[in-house]
Amino acid sequence: MMRAATCPCGTGRALEACCGAFHAGEVAPDAERLMRSRYSAFALGLEDYLQATWHPDTRPAELGLNAAPTPQWLGLAIKTHTPLDEHHATVEFIARYKLNGRAFKLHETSRFEKMDGRWLYVDGVMHE
């Protein structure tokens, strides 16, 4: 029997029971779950999902996920999830990755907006 792949977002759950459900079309219930699913989408190279969950006002034309060198995503830590009101929230996170054998951390506070019943990534502020 094959073991299900563990979700890259760090919950320890199977991908299909975690972020994979959102990648397949289920709506993320809050900004933190969307953030986790977007991290997993980066780790799995799911550019279509990333584009679909990006606010139309700030969405880039393309992400270039296949451009070399590609990062190896190592882990996600959610620091805070702050609902601001019914339609706005922030998520502070640290994502660890390797690029060309060197380790890096991406520390960001992301802004999310709920439009038409779906949470979308708007933009983020990087921390040093």
Describe this structure in words.
With 128 residues, this protein is of the alpha+beta class. It has three helices and four strands, in the order αααββββ. The protein is 20% helix and 38% strand. A four-stranded antiparallel sheet has the order 1-2-3-4, covered by helices on one side. A hairpin with a 2-residue loop joins strand 3 and strand 4.
- How are strands sequenced across the largest beta sheet? 1-2-3-4
Q: What's the tally of helices?
A: 3
Instruction: Please provide the ordered H/E string of secondary-structure elements.
Output: HHHEEEE
What structural category do the secondary elements indicate? alpha+beta
DSSP E strands, number: 4
Using the CA coordinates, give the radius of gyration. 14 Å
Largest sheet: 4 strands, antiparallel
Q: What share of the residues lie within helices?
A: 10-25%
The rounded distance between the terminal residues' Cα atoms is 45 Å
Shape: globular
The proportion of strand residues reads 35-45%
Average pLDDT level: 94
Query: What are the segments in which pLDDT stays under 50 over at least 5 consecutive residues?
Result: none
Throw out a few tags for this protein.
single chain, 128 residues, four-stranded antiparallel β-sheet, 3 helices, 4 strands, 20% helix, globular
SSE layout and pairings?
Elements: H1 19-23, H2 31-44, H3 47-52, E1 72-85, E2 88-99, E3 102-115, E4 118-126
Antiparallel strand pairs: 1-2, 2-3, 3-4
Condensed summary:
The protein has 128 residues and is of the alpha+beta class. The chain is 20% helix and 38% strand. The chain contains three helices and four strands; from the N terminus they run H-H-H-E-E-E-E.
